[in-house]
């Protein structure tokens, strides 16, 4: 249920707006405020998904309401309502953070499209904040091996640029970590980092997911929806497992990279985007190209910088550091005192064949912390971590 606040001092216009919104969707919960002061008080006390706010009102005008709210709830989208003589002011409110403006008397289609787009944008902002909170930590690859030191040096050089990066390596090696680290060290770090797992999205939905769609583009498209490229505007989009993307979607991604523009499914309107693209795959893309499964021109667009993440078996010297790191993190998560691993236990773990790479090592460390003794011994490893 989307909660909308209409702030308008003219009762007739306020009633029209409420009527349009409530008749458009039963998922809109609409509240009213008869002037700016009442509206500002409501915004302090309650959370809204969207605000429709008149510009010229007694006691407190719409610009003041917008500025006051953006200080405490910057994520709330505002659509300003302007009279004929307020257009310059309406345009200026967009510089202050308003999503858009509509003129009086409101055009039905313009109003509803603006409301839908503003609510979509709010969803994306909320999702971005959730993801930032989830990943709002310092990303760094743990290890001092030659391979990891080389990757760290590359990240330091590449992060400050807008160069596209293609990260390759087996599953579980930390490709996602490399992508986040590049974003975190870049000038785009304040912008969104949007992740798309291309392997997890059905091929018939990948284009809609990436580029969005307009209402009626396909059977279940009951409203306009922004895609991941739009959500990542000003930041970074991480296309994980890009080797699993359909050739049709690859063609559209190529166009987006060439022109910095996307088109929503079902629309011929170009939307300009400013996005850095980082991609990752566990596949041999040159082999995929030879077999006609991946576009060579897209490969060369993506692989401006190529980062190869090694398998854990190729960096066994890092395993003691990884065990220490995971032990500390898991103990924090569980609220327990960190256990120690005996030298023989660590040596035995270094000798294992880690087909699942770092992901598998973390699971084994967690199992040993839970099931092992006060100090994890060689016997614990043989008992609980046996392959």
TrEMBL record:
Gene3D superfamilies: 1.10.8.60, 3.40.50.2300, P-loop containing nucleotide triphosphate hydrolases. InterPro entries: AAA+_ATPase, AAA_lid_NorR, CheY-like_superfamily, P-loop_NTPase, Sig_transdc_resp-reg_receiver, Sigma_54_int, Sigma_54_int_dom_ATP-bd_2. Residues 141-370 form the Sigma-54 factor interaction domain. Residues 3-119 form the Response regulatory domain. Keywords: ATP-binding, Nucleotide-binding, Phosphoprotein. It comes from the Bacteria. The modification 4-aspartylphosphate is found at residue 54. PANTHER family: TRANSCRIPTIONAL REGULATOR (NTRC FAMILY) (PTHR32071:SF17), TRANSCRIPTIONAL REGULATORY PROTEIN (PTHR32071). This is Sigma-54-dependent transcriptional regulator.
């Amino acid at each position: 249920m989307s909660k909308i606040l209409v702030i308008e001092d003219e009762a007739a216009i306020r009633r029209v707006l409420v009527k349009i919104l409530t008749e458009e969707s039963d998922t809109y919960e609409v509240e009213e405020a008869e002037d700016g002061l009442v509206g500002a008080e409501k915004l302090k006390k309650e959370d809204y998904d969207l605000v429709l706010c008149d510009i010229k009102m007694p006691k407190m005008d719409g610009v003041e309401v917008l500025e006051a709210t953006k200080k405490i709830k910057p994520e709330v989208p505002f659509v300003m309502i302007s009279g004929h003589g307020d257009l310059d002011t309406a345009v200026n409110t967009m510089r202050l953070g308003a999503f858009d403006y509509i003129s009086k008397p409101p055009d039905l289609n313009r109003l509803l499209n603006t409301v839908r787009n503003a609510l979509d944008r709010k969803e994306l902002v909320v999702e971005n904040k959730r993801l930032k909170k989830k990943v709002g930590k310092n990303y760094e690859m743990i290890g001092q091996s030659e391979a990891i030191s080389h990757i760290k040096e590359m990240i330091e050089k590449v992060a400050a640029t807008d160069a596209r990066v293609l990260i390759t390596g087996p599953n579980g090696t930390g490709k996602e970590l490399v992508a986040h680290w590049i974003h975190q060290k870049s000038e785009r770090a304040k912008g969104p980092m949007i992740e798309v797992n291309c392997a997890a999205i059905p091929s018939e939905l990948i284009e809609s997911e990436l580029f969005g769609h307009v209402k009626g583009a396909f059977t279940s498209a009951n409203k306009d929806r922004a895609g991941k490229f739009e959500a990542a505007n000003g930041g970074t989009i991480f296309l994980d497992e890009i080797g699993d993307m359909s050739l049709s979607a690859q063609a559209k991604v190529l166009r987006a990279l060439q022109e910095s523009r996307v088109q929503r499914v079902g629309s011929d309107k170009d939307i300009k985007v400013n996005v850095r693209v980082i991609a990752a795959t566990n596949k041999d893309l040159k082999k995929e190209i030879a077999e006609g499964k991946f576009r060579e021109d897209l490969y060369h667009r993506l692989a401006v910088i190529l980062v190869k993440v090694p398998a854990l078996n190729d960096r066994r010297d890092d395993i003691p550091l990884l065990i220490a790191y995971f032990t500390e993190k898991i103990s924090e998560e569980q609220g327990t005192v960190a256990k120690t691993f005996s030298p023989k236990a660590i040596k035995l773990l270094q000798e294992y064949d880690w087909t699942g790479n770092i992901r598998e090592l973390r699971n084994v460390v967690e199992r040993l912390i839970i099931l092992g003794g006060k100090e994890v011994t060689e016997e614990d490893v043989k008992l609980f971590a046996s392959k």
